C-alpha cells in the first residue's frame, strides 16, 4: 500500500534581496505519521525551508501541498484553518518572557476565550506529556533550564492538537543527556499521538528515532532515504556529511543564509 | 558617472517609497484590526500603566520646570515694556496650547516609545512574534493595537498634569521669586484663556500619543539583526517619533486655529 504523504513540497524557491537562492527548488515528500529529519550544514537554509512550510516566510515560487491543497496559494482568511494542523517548535523555544509557564502553554486557549479553569486542565495534561512537574507552572521562562524551556515550547505546541509538528533544531545548545531526553520525548509524542514530525537537526543520534532522512545542500535536497539504512548509503553527499569528511561534494565553505533574515 | 548618479537617486527614491508604504500599510492594518477584532482590554490597561503611570514623574518634572523658566523669561521681556501683568496669560496659554502637549509627547517618546520599540523588537529577534504567528494568535490584536490605543488615551491625561504643574511652576516663580501679584497672574489666565485652548492642547497630546506608539510598534515589529538591531530600532523610533511630533504640531496648530 502506498504511504500517505502529509506534506508535499514541490520546487520551492526562496531568496532574500535578489541574492542567491536559499532554497533553490526543494522537492520533498514527508510521509504521514513518521519522523523525517532534515540535515545539512549550518546556513544551508534548513530553517528557511521550514519557515516557508509553516507560513512564516512566503516562497518566491513552488508549492507546499498539505491535504491536497497548495497552502502557498490560499487566501489569507483560509490559511489559519490549514495552519491549525501544524505546530512549530522553535530552536530556542521562543517562550513569551512576560508570561509564566502556565500562561505560555495555555496562550492559545486563553486568547480564544477558554476560561482559566478549563485551560488549566489542558495545560496540566500537556505538561504531563512532556514530563514536567506542576510546580513549574508559575515559573517564568528566565527561571527555566534550556531543556525545560524546550519542553514547555513543545507543550505549548501540543495544546493546539496539531497533526504535524515542525522542529527547528530542538536540541541545539543542550547537553548530551538532555538531548537524549528530548529525542525520546519527541519519539514518544510521535508514536503516542500519531504525529507527523519534521525535524531539522545536526544531531546524528536522532537517526535512531527517525524514519526518513533528507540532506539539504546548496538549496536542493541531495539525499532522501530510510533512516535505518542511511549509514549504508553510498550517496556521496550523505556519506560525507554523516562521517564529517572534509573531502567530498559538500565544500568546506560556510554559507550564511541565516544572516539574511 | 551620470548613470550611476541617476541610479542612486532612483534606488533611494524606491527605498523611501517602500519604507513609507510599509509604514502606512502597518497603520492601516492596525486600524483594520482595531475595528474588526475584540480589543484586549487587560493588555490595553497594562500598556496604559506602563506608558502613563511610569512616565508621570518625568512629565511633571519637565512641566514644572518649563513653566518656571517660561515665567522667568517672560518677566525679562515684559518688564522692558511694563507688561508684567500678562505673564500669567503667556505662561498659561503657552503651557496649555504648546509646551504641555509637546513636552509630554517628547518625554513619553523617550521614556515609553523607546520601550515599546525595544520590547517588540526583542520579541521579534527572539522569535516570540513568530511563535505567536505559528500559534495563530493575531499579533496586531495582541501586541500592536493595545499599545496604540493605550498611548493615544493616556498621553492627554499626562499632558493635563504637565499643563497644571507648568502653570503652578510659573506661579511659584512669579509670586515667590519675582514678587509679582498672585491676583495678576491668575486673573490674566482667566481673562485670556479659553476652554478651546485646553481642548486643542488635549487633542494635540492625543495625536502625539498616537504617533509615538505607531512609530514605536512599527520600528519594533520590523526589527532585524540581533541586539544591534534592537538598539537601532529603539533609536530610530525616538528620532522619527520626535520629528513627527514637532512637524505635526505645526499643522495641528494651523488646523485647530481654523476650527
Helix content of chain A: 25-40%
Span of the ends, CA to CA of chain A: 42 Å
Q: Given the helix and strand composition of chain B, which structural class is it?
A: mainly alpha
State the largest interface. Answer: A-B, 24 and 14 residues
Q: Give the low-confidence spans of chain B.
A: none
Shape of chain A: globular
The residue fraction in helices of chain B comes out at: over 70%
What features would you describe in this structure?
The complex is a heterodimer of chains A (261) and B (259). Chain A has helices spanning 46-54, 76-83, 101-105, 107-111, 116-129, 146-158, 176-193, 236-243, and strands at 5-15, 21-31, 35-39, 61-66, 69-70, 86-89, 164-168, 196-200, 212-217, 220-226. Chain A is an alpha/beta fold. In chain A, the strands form 2 sheets. In chain A, strands 6-7-8-3-9-10 form a 6-stranded mixed β-sheet, with helices on both faces. The longest helix of chain A is centred in the last third of the chain and has 18 residues, at 176-193. Chain B has helices spanning 2-36, 41-51, 56-81, 87-125, 128-134, 139-177, 182-192, 195-221, 226-258. The longest helix of chain B has 39 residues, at 87-125.
Question: Could you provide a short overview of the structure?
Answer:
The complex is a heterodimer of chains A (261) and B (259). With 261 residues, chain A is an alpha/beta fold. Helix content of chain A is 31%, strand content 24%.
What does the secondary structure layout of this molecule look like, with pairings?
The complex is a heterodimer of chains A (261) and B (259).
Chain A: E1 5-15, E2 21-31, E3 35-39, H1 46-54, E4 61-66, E5 69-70, H2 76-83, E6 86-89, H3 101-105, H4 107-111, H5 116-129, H6 146-158, E7 164-168, H7 176-193, E8 196-200, E9 212-217, E10 220-226, H8 236-243
Parallel strand pairs in A: 3-8, 3-9, 6-7, 7-8
Antiparallel strand pairs in A: 1-2, 1-4, 4-5, 9-10
Chain B: H1 2-36, H2 41-51, H3 56-81, H4 87-125, H5 128-134, H6 139-177, H7 182-192, H8 195-221, H9 226-258
